[in-house]
Amino acid sequence: MSEQTLDRGAQVREGEELDLERLGPWLKSQIAGLEDEPQVTQYSGGASNWTYCLTYQNREIVLRRAPTGTKAKGAHDMGREHRLQAALKPVYRYVPTMLAHSEDPSLIGTEFYVMEKLTGIIPRKHMPRGVDLSESQVRTLCLNVLDSLIELHQVDYKSAGLDHLAKGEGYTERQISGWIKRYQDAKTWNVPTGKPVMSWLEDNLPDKEIICLTHNDFRFDNVVLSGEDPTEVIGVLDWELATLGDPLMDLGNSLAYWTEAGDDRLAQFMRRQPTHMKGMLNREEVISYYLDKTGYAPNDMRFYEVYGLFRLAGIIQQIYFRYYHKQTRNPAFKNMWVMVHYLMHRCRKAIKA
After folding, report:
1. Does residue 21 sit within a domain?
2. Is the distance from CB of 215 to CB of 186 less than 8 angstroms?
3. How many CB atoms are located within 10 Å of the residue 232 CB?
4. For the chain, what is the radius of gyration of the CA atoms?
5. Residue 202 phi/psi, 5° resolution?
């Protein structure tokens, strides 16, 4: 596979530069063997935390930090993200190795952590040029990605000593009340109130929940594929929201991002992963495959689908809120309020289905 197909960072956005004069010596004190000064690039895919690649003469490492501006309570916790991945690594093969963590704001102005760089292909809106997969290979890729999510949900977190990560029981109700509050706190004048959707979710909470390790932002552009075999998953990234939660809620989150080939124009505009390709499962097939492999049998998947769409609307609105109040200059966030309208429409449509 060509080097050009492997995922690379781009130029650092204005106002989001790293202070290498302070950061550089600290990194060398924490990670043995780093040679010379690094070239710094920034990944454009992240709309939440800022992620950088530091390329030294002999090694590449990745740094994750919180953005500037107002943050929702509990969001962008780099220390938690670092500790959680360090704990998960021994029991879940797809987690990168953690290298260092700092709470010292004098280094780059905020808490951050550093991890190994998994060199491979990240399937974003389109597969990279040069990655030409047959319909059969696309199906294999799709199933392998789903299997990596199922594998996470089947980790025995208690025997692995991970039962301290979160409360667990009552997760579903906490998620609904929490995302309602986050949406309301981030609301701007140009987006819907969302009250009908919120009320429906509150009135239709499932009677039962399953507790397992959940990623809560699992999608194709958060996985790393092998450069040798692009159907093989070698890593799962972005563990900011991972916790002990309900696996069907996690699946609902993933379905919110799952754009099919036959979806409308706005869905295609919002698409950020290649789930439109021939060979990919559609949303109904994803649900059937997941339930068949796990043995879970919910009374109604509609709740989880609506939750995933509403939560995504909340995430997008939080990002837009920062842009609206000039806390970020990223031009990609300018029209996100339109997406919030669309996702609320999808919620209402799913409720009536």
Report:
1. yes
2. no
3. 15
4. 20
5. -65, -35
DSSP annotation of 10 reads B
Looking up tokens 């920062």, which residue turns up? 322
Q: Cα torsion at 216, 220, 225, 227 (round to 10°)?
A: -150
pTM reported for the whole predicted model = 0.89
| Of 18, 16, 27, 14, residue with least CA distance to 108 | 18
How, if at all, do strands 233-236 and 243-245 pair?
A: unpaired
Which domain CATH number covers 196?
3.90.1200.10
Shared domain for 70 and 203, answered yes or no, is no
Residues 93, 236 within the same domain: no
pLDDT digit string (tens) for 126-138? 998 889 999 999 9
What is the per-residue pLDDT across 243-264, written as a single tens digit (0 to 9) for each?
999 999 999 999 999 999 999 9
Please give the Cα distance from 62 to 184 (Å, whole number).
34
Closest CA to 231 of 147, 117, 293: 147
Cα dihedral 216, 218, 219, 223, rounded to 10, equals 140
pLDDT band at 145 (very low <50, low <70, confident <90, very high): very high
